[in-house]
Design brief:
Radius of gyration: 23 Å
Structural class: mainly alpha
Strand order of the largest sheet: 2-1-3-5-4
Number of domains: 2
Helix content: 55-70%
Strand content: 5-15%
Distance between the termini: 67 Å
Number of helices: 19
Length: about 475
Amino acid sequence: MKKSTHYIFGVICGLLVVGFFLLLDIPAFWDARSKFGRANWLYENDFSSLVVPTEYNSGHPPLWIWCIAIFWKIFGKAIWSARLLLLFVNIGVFYQLFQLGKKVLAPYVPFWAILLVCIEPTLIGQTTILNNDMLLLFFTLLGVNCLLKNYWILYAIALTGILFSNLRGMYVVITLVIVHIAYVRYSLIAIKKHMLWSYLISIGLLILFFFYQYRELGWIIITENEAYSGHRKSVGFAHILKNTAAFGKNLLDFGRVFIWVPVVLMLLTLFKRSSEQIDSYSLKSLIPLVVFSIVFFLGTVPFSNPMGPRYFMICFLLAIFLFINLLFNYDLSKKIRNSIFSITALGLLTGHLWVYPATISQGWDSSLAYLRYFDLEEQIIDYIKNEKINSLEIGTHLSFNNRWANYAREQQASDLLFAKADLTSNTFYLFSNIENSTKDEEIKQLKEEWTLLQEYCDMGVFLQLYKKKH
């Protein structure tokens, strides 16, 4: 890492620490809530088992919940201790990003250009989310870096971490195997037979864990918990087309259209010129970008599990590395190049402001837009209490009833209990665009047949309380 790049990395670490203190009390959000619930079981049961019971278990390997529960044991059961864990992981992710930049960015690229990678909106959003995706990203980046250096011991650790962080880690390992072969094929790395031990060790450890889980629960990978098992089913052709559109939207969302469009155009122009070939630095990011995209597409589109932009963070980051290389390698004037770079940076920064109409599902955990929600939640709770509305008559898809899982402590849970969302039986209905569960026809019914009692809104994020007219 160049000395000047060290300064940038230091500034980013400082910003991550500042973010840690600013968000110290922000609770778990979306899928992170279920991770808190599982970590809570491990914590309360003193790790009597390394896997949580089927009633809590989604099938994902438990490395992240192990880490949360361990940090709770050391520092106390609180949001801040889980955020301290996330801070360490975040710093590790950015360190690995800078290490990768040393290998895939060409020498003619200015050191400050890596800042474009650091402002990727889903990456920034995930630095604030208490979920396992940053842990998976850390091990994925470590794996790519170790692969480029043929460090077999660290590579074994990276592969093990990948497999134990998330079921999607299996796709990542498959991708790295293909990338490994491609790197050797294009003479980007030398053949080192001892690298095979990395795969054998990591896969062997996963198999041992699966044996342990099967003995404890009687199943592996596909959970018997009906709340999650439906996410692993194959779908028909119509649903595949819908998922394909969602996959494309995830790639272009939150300002990333400013990356993908110029990358595709520059690659097409480059490949049309038979006299020019893509340089080895760009090839180091292009190969894993293509393979990751294909494997993730084939691994997500044919199945029922809803996909979010956070699933594809490694693709977004590799695409930006490739964009930087191509931009500074392309025959452009300095003024035009800097203008394109600036427009792209502004496009990514605006990603945190992208909010769609309520009828369009949005990856709320993939930008900073969700942070506007929590003050609105407190306001609507105060309104319900002040108006003396019986919360048991309010239907909602929002997670008020298990709010302790957001905060890690029962004392911080809301004392209100809400009804299950059902427009036919609810007298009141609490709706927000961050929940993605109210159907389009139900949203239309609310606006046409119900009375809006109160609304709180902040830059597109809203909470609305409705009352049935009849």
